[in-house]
Amino acid sequence: MILCDIVLTVNILIDIKLTHDRIGGVMKKRNVELDEHSIRAFNLRKVLTITELSKILVCSIITVRRRLKEWRTYTSYNKNGRYYTLPSIPKFNKKGIWTYKDIFFSRYGT
User: What is the rounded CA–CA span in Å between residue 5 and residue 2?
Assistant: First the structure.
């Protein structure tokens, strides 16, 4: 009886592994160097789009969104929220607004 349970468990685990591999479930390891490169790009250019970050990080848009959340970035409140900046970059005025070129950010969110 115990042997049957072990064999069943092993078969289930093998099936899960095969399914996982078949649907491309193998996650890549995070490349910290690309994260650092993105931070440098932010410091150099001040604002970036998701598309630009996707190219820098060599990852999907979904992954970029996760990184932006992790980094607690600000989102522009004009330009359809297309631009992002790191919290260390903007120098907000008394009203909590920071302008970079014609892109506006609010300390209080979009």
Answer: 5
- Give the range among 11-15, 22-26, 74-78 with minimum mean pLDDT: 11-15
Phi and psi at 39, nearest 5°, equal -65, -40
Taking alpha carbons only, the member of 85, 91, 93 closest to residue 42 is 85
Helix (H, G, I), strand (E, B) or coil at 40: helix
Q: What is the DSSP string of 48-96?
A: EEHHHHHHHHTS-HHHHHHHHHHTT-EEBSSGGG-EEE-TTS----TTS
Question: CA–CA separation, 83 vs 103, rounded Å?
Answer: 8
List, in order of start, the domains of the chain with CATH numbers: 32-110 (1.10.10)
What local confidence, expressed as pLDDT, does residue 7 receive?
46
pLDDT at 10 (0 to 100): 46
